[in-house]
């Protein structure tokens, strides 16, 4: 399907190089989404993600903050960042997602790879370019789709090189970024999203309805009602989910004991944490760590 003379993709197009957890991993996913399947809560991944809406008026949330998107905007999501997309009512929205991991400690290229990945670690990692720059980027995406249809002994390497070329164009074009967040919100919505931002940066501290209501100059009853109306979650659910996300990151990326990870992220006791963890994820923290640790870590022999 031709989209504004730039993207040539088929619905349901999926391209994968290696597997999640490998040091080098790509997953290209082009499909459609509707408001009926909007995510219920922000999620995160242990890998990088490039999200490109191919329809107008989507809203993307990064760490609880909403960003209005236009067609062909590029959202660069780093590992372990909470995010989700809300699509508007009406026709289905096309979107392209590239999930990937790169070996950052590559002999002779580590500094260059870190520069490319710095695109994903900006305060607002969203990019909007001119038609000409978009054409350069989408030409490479189209090439990747074509390469995926040409099996050969160097297919995976060719896809890797083409994607690195895409990131290089994106990096060199970064100062041309025209993105401005034009999310239309009421004063109450802005206050609630400021509160969610506070939760994301103070999750390890004691948080309560009364304390947050006082800090944000609202009554406890009004805050409770408006928080649910704006986010779709109770304040307690949101705090638990935010703390849980940070524990998950520690379980995946560190060897910190599970109890220490839970307490360091704000849970008042291990029993509370264990109950919330199994309710949300359907497994124990030990099982989660074993299944989600990067493949290289899982394959390392245990020290005797």
Task: Tell me what the structure shows.
By secondary structure, the protein is of the alpha+beta class. The longest helix has 19 residues, at 235-253. It is 43% helix and 16% strand. The chain has 2 domains: 2-176, Sandwich (Jelly Rolls); 187-295, Arc Repressor Mutant, subunit A. The strands form 3 sheets. A 6-stranded antiparallel β-sheet has the order 3-4-10-5-8-11, with helices on one face. Strands 7-6-9 form a 3-stranded antiparallel β-sheet. The protein is globular and about 60 Å long.
Features:
disordered C terminus; 2 domains; 11 strands; globular; 16% strand; 11 helices; alpha+beta; 6-stranded antiparallel β-sheet; 304 residues; Jelly Rolls; 3-stranded antiparallel β-sheet; Arc Repressor Mutant, subunit A
Which residues form runs of ≥5 with pLDDT under 50? 296-304
- Sum up the overall morphology in one term: globular
Based on helices, strands and strand pairing, what is the structural class?
alpha+beta
Q: What is the CA-based Rg, rounded?
A: 21 Å
Largest sheet strand order: 3-4-10-5-8-11
Entry summary:
The chain has 304 residues and is an alpha+beta fold. It is 43% helix and 16% strand. The protein has helices at residues 110-117, 131-148, 155-172, 187-202, 209-215, 220-231, 235-253, 258-264, 270-281, 285-292, 295-299; strands at 2-3, 7-8, 14-17, 25-33, 48-53, 59-62, 65-68, 74-77, 83-86, 93-101, 126-127.
